[in-house]
Amino acid sequence: MKNTAAEGHIFAKTGTVEHVVALSGYATTSQGAHLIFSILGNNNSLHAQAADAVLDAIAVAMVEELGPPQLRKRKK
């Protein structure tokens, strides 16, 4: 995931078996939240590179988008 928002934020292991891909590990989001995740794609017809690209895109989205909810300030 070099040259993406996920670089240095995802610590994971991939796994593949015929028509199955997986990515499991730990992530730290850009907002500082710590995540434990496991993503499994089963019975897919994608080539290995295309399947890996999907998992990478999900990992980048986790890092960029997930985190603690923003607290709204109360008006006095």
If you had to describe this structure to a student in words, what would you say it looks like?
- The protein is α+β, with helices and mostly antiparallel strands and 76 residues long.
- Strand 1 and strand 2 form a beta hairpin.
- It is 24% helix and 34% strand.
- The longest helix has 18 residues.
- The protein starts with 9 loop residues before the first strand and ends in an 11-residue tail after the last helix.
- The model has no long low-confidence stretch (mean pLDDT 88).
- The protein has one domain.
- The chain has a 3-stranded antiparallel beta sheet with strand order 1-2-3, covered by helices on one side.
Strand and helix layout:
Layout: E1 10-17, E2 20-28, E3 34-42, H1 48-65
Provide tags for this entry:
76 residues; single chain; alpha+beta; 1 helix; three-stranded antiparallel beta sheet
| Total separate domains | 1
Individual helix count: 1
Overall number of strands: 3
Amino- and carboxy-terminal Cα gap: 45 Å
Give unreliable regions as ranges. Answer: none
Summarize the structure.
This protein has 76 residues and is α+β, with helices and mostly antiparallel strands.
